Amino acid sequence: MTAPGTPAGAPAADTDDLDVEEALALVREPHREPPDDGAARPPGGPAVRQPAERHTATPWPHAREIAARAARTARAHGRQGTADSSAGDRRAPVSVPLGDALGLVLAAPLDALTDLPSFDTSAMDGWAVAGPGPWQVREEGVLAGHAQPEPLTDGVAVRIATGARVPADTTAVLRTEHGRTDAQGRLHPTREMSHGQDIRPRGQECRTGDQLLPVGTLVTPAVLGLAAAAGYDTVTVVPRPRVEVLILGDELLTEGLPHDGLIRDALGPMLPPWLRALGADVVAVRRIGDDARALRKAVTASRADLVITTGGTAAGPVDHVHPVLERVGAELLVDGVKVRPGHPMLLARTKEHQHLVGLPGNPLAAVSGLLTLAEPLLRTLAARPAPEPYTLPLKEAVQGHPYDTRLIPVVLRGDHAVPLHYNGPAMLRGIAAADALAVVPPGGARQGEEAELLDLPWATAGIGVCFT
C-alpha cells in the first residue's frame, strides 16, 4: 500500500531494510505547498523563506518511522558506549527499587528467586484435617506468618487461617462453611472432600529459576506485585529517556492575562507532564526567548537524550532553530512533515547519542509534532512496545488537505470517533476534550470511513496514566 504523499506510480518504500539516511533520502521529496502553521508571513504574502531555498517535507508515516529508527541507533550507541562515557552509561540498564519501576521496561528477565508458594499453604479459612473424619479439634490454631506448626495425626484437626503453613501430614483443608461440630466437639464435613483440597502446594505457581517474565515486559502494577511476591526488592530496567524542554519566544507570559501583544505560554505547562506520560524524565524546562546565542548555548550544553524546542522552526526573522542546528553541526533527519497542523516540525541528530525535536509554536501544531516525532523516538529509547494500530469509523466527514495528512481531535462514542471542532493550529479547546487524534489522509475522509486513531496517554487504560 502506497503511503499518503507518495508520488503516483512510485513503489512503496520498505524502510525497515534501510538505515536512517537511506530512508530519509527515499521518502523526502519536494513539497510545493507553503506551510499554514508557524511560518512567518508578510501581510498578504507567502511564507518568508530564503530565496534559494526549496523546502522538502517527509510524509507523515515515514517521519514516525525515521524517528523510531533514529532512537534505535541512539540506543545501540548507548549500549556500546561512546567517546562521552556518561552518554553510554545513561542508556545502559539500571537497577531500580520496585517503587520507581512503574512504566519502565524490563532489561533482564524476571526469574523466580524462590518457589511460589515457598511452603504448603492453606487456600481458605477452615480446619487442617488428617485422615478421615470425624476429627478431634486441637485447641491451638494455626495463623499466617507463624512458624511451622506441629504435625497432625489421623483423626485430628486444627483451626487454620488463609495463607498459614499447613501442618505436616495434613490430608486436606476443610472450609469453615463446609464443617460442623457436634456436642462432643468433634468436627464433621458437610460435603464430600478430596485429598489435597484447598491446599496450595509448594511451587504451584513456579519453581526457583523459572522465568516469570521476559526482557521487554512493561512494568505494570501487576508486574510489581509479582516481582515482590517472587522476592525482588529491585528490578533491572531500561532507564527513562532524559528530556530537556527549551521554550522559545519573547512574546510569552508565564502568568496573568494576555496584554499588549503578549500571550500566555501554553506549552510550558503542557509539555512536561505530557512527556512524563510518554515515559520521559523531564530534567529541565528552560525559557530561552528569541535569542540565537542562548539557544545555541543551551543545545550544546544539554546532556539530555532528547532536546525539545518550541517555535522558531520556520524561516521568519527570529526563527533561530535551523541556523543554530547548522552552526552546531547537527544532522537534519526530518525537515518538515506532510501533516496539518504541525507542518514545520523537525528532527535532528545533534550528537551521537542525542536528538532534537523542533515543535512549531502554535499549541495544537506542537501537539502534532509531539505525537509525530517525539512519541516514537521516546518510546523506542525506552524500549516500550509500539501500540497496536486500530481504526474506528468517523461519525461525520472530515475535510482533508490536498497533499498532507491531517490530525483531528476526536472523542470516542461507542463504536465511532466523533470529530471535534476548534482544531486549528493555535487552538487547544478541541484536544483538551479529546480521547484521541484521528489520522485523516490527504483528500479527507467520508462519514463512516475508518480512520486510524492515536490514543492520548491519559485517555487509555494503560500505564500512560502515570504522570510522575
Give an account of the 3D structure.
The structure is a single chain. By secondary structure, the protein is of the alpha+beta class. Helices cover 21% and strands 25% of the residues. Strands 1, 2, 22, 25, 26, 27, 28 and 29 form an eight-stranded mixed sheet that branches. The chain is elongated, with a radius of gyration of 30 Å.
Q: Please compute the radius of gyration using only Cα atoms.
A: 30 Å
User: Terminal Cα separation, in Å?
Assistant: 40 Å
**In DSSP terms, counting alpha (H) and pi (I) runs of 4 or more, how many helices?**
9
Structural class: alpha+beta
Enzyme class: transferase
Cofactor: Mg(2+)
Pathway: Cofactor biosynthesis; molybdopterin biosynthesis
Domain MoaB/Mog: 244-380
SSE order and pairing:
Layout: H1 20-27, E1 29-30, E2 56-59, H2 60-80, H3 85-91, E3 94-97, E4 105-106, E5 110-111, E6 121-122, E7 126-129, E8 135-137, E9 156-160, E10 172-175, E11 179-181, E12 186-189, E13 199-200, E14 211-213, H4 221-229, E15 234-238, E16 242-247, E17 252-253, E18 263-264, H5 267-277, E19 281-287, H6 292-301, E20 306-310, H7 321-327, E21 331-335, E22 337-340, E23 346-351, E24 354-359, H8 363-381, E25 391-393, E26 405-413, E27 416-419, H9 429-432, E28 436-440, E29 450-455
Parallel strand pairs: 2-22, 8-9, 16-19, 16-20, 17-18, 20-24, 22-26
Antiparallel strand pairs: 1-2, 3-15, 4-15, 5-14, 6-13, 7-9, 7-10, 8-12, 11-12, 21-23, 23-24, 25-29, 26-27, 26-28, 28-29
Helix pairs in contact: 1-2, 2-3, 2-8, 6-7
